[in-house]
Amino acid sequence: MKILLINISLRPHSEKIIFPIGFGYIATAVERAGFEFEILDLDVLRLSDEEVEEYIKRLDFDVVAFGCIVTGYKYVKKLAEVIKKYKKSVQEGKKFSL
Predict the structure, then answer these.
(1) Which letter does DSSP use for residue 5 in this model?
(2) How far apart are CA 78 and CA 97, in angstroms?
(3) Residue 4: which of 80, 75, 64 has the closest Cα?
(4) What CA–CA distances, in Å, run from 34 to 2, 17, 19, 60?
(5) Residue 20's pLDDT band (cuts 50, 70, 90)
(6) How much is the mean pLDDT over the chain?
């Protein structure tokens, strides 16, 4: 099973980039469970919407995981639509927090 972990950028115009520790915990758990995964760190890469869409379009994955705090809701909703546009078998999962 291939998993795509997406770290969205909550402050795209900020020069300071801090990797979220919770995201690191999730990536570590996925790796320790033996799953193949890739990280798309939008906070570091600062990709345009078009570049993100092209990335999603060409990737092959079974599961995608991402989340945010309330200020990122609009972006996450748009991202989910892009994913569903190209990956028809992807369904929205349950929402949870650690």
Answers:
(1) E
(2) 20
(3) 64
(4) 10, 29, 23, 18
(5) confident
(6) 83
Q: How far apart are the C-alpha atoms of 32 and 20, rounded to whole Å? A: 19
pLDDT above 90 coverage of the chain, percent: 27
Q: What's the whole-number mean pLDDT along residues 31-51?
A: 91
Q: Are 35 and 1 in contact, with CB atoms under 8 Å apart?
A: yes
Is the Cβ–Cβ distance between 5 and 27 less than 8 Å? yes
User: Residues 23, 72, 82, 48: what is their CA dihedral angle, to the nearest 10 degrees?
Assistant: -90
Q: What angle (nearest 5°) sits at the alpha carbon of residue 19, between those of residues 39 and 34?
A: 40
- Fill in the amino acid letter for 87: K
pLDDT tens for each residue of 42-82: 888 889 999 999 999 998 888 888 877 777 888 888 998 89
Amino acid at position 59, single letter: L
Can you tell me the distance from the alpha carbon of 56 to that of 53, in angstroms, rounded to the nearest whole number?
Answer: 5
* Coil, helix or strand at residue 7: strand
